[in-house]
């Protein structure tokens, strides 16, 4: 059951990222399950990195806020890592 929830959160981050970037085909999100936390690794095209992070990291912080709020409902912790 936990994998379904991780998959839902993975799809959520993917949808948000695809809406932000110029090259949605380059967006990929990998869920890495840990004991306490599920880490979602987000990869985008190099020229889209700034769009996903946002000014002073605001966009990335907003995505993380959505993750933590949805994670509370699922009683599971999620973190977002944006990989270059």
What does this structure look like?
- The protein has about 80 residues and is α+β, with helices and mostly antiparallel strands.
- It has a single domain, classed as GMP Synthetase, Chain A, domain 3.
- The protein is about 50% helix and about 25% strand.
- It has three helices and three strands.
- The protein has a three-stranded mixed beta sheet with strand order 1-2-3.
- It starts with a helix and ends with a strand.
- The mean pLDDT is about 90.
Summarize the structure.
The chain has 84 residues and is an alpha+beta fold. 49% of the residues lie in helices and 24% in strands.
Average pLDDT confidence is 92
The helix count comes to 3
Low-confidence stretches: none
Give a short account of the largest sheet. Answer: 3 strands, mixed
Q: Please identify the structural class as seen in this structure.
A: alpha+beta
Q: If classified by CATH, what would the architecture be? A: 2-Layer Sandwich
CATH superfamily grouping: K homology (KH) domain
Distance between the termini: 30 Å
Question: What topology does this entry show?
Answer:
Blueprint lengths: L1 H19 L7 E6 L3 E7 L5 H5 L4 H17 L2 E7 L1
Parallel strand pairs: 2-3
Antiparallel strand pairs: 1-2
Helix pairs in contact: 1-3
Looking at this protein, list some descriptive labels.
alpha+beta, GMP Synthetase, Chain A, domain 3, 84 residues, 49% helix, 3 helices, three-stranded mixed β-sheet, single chain
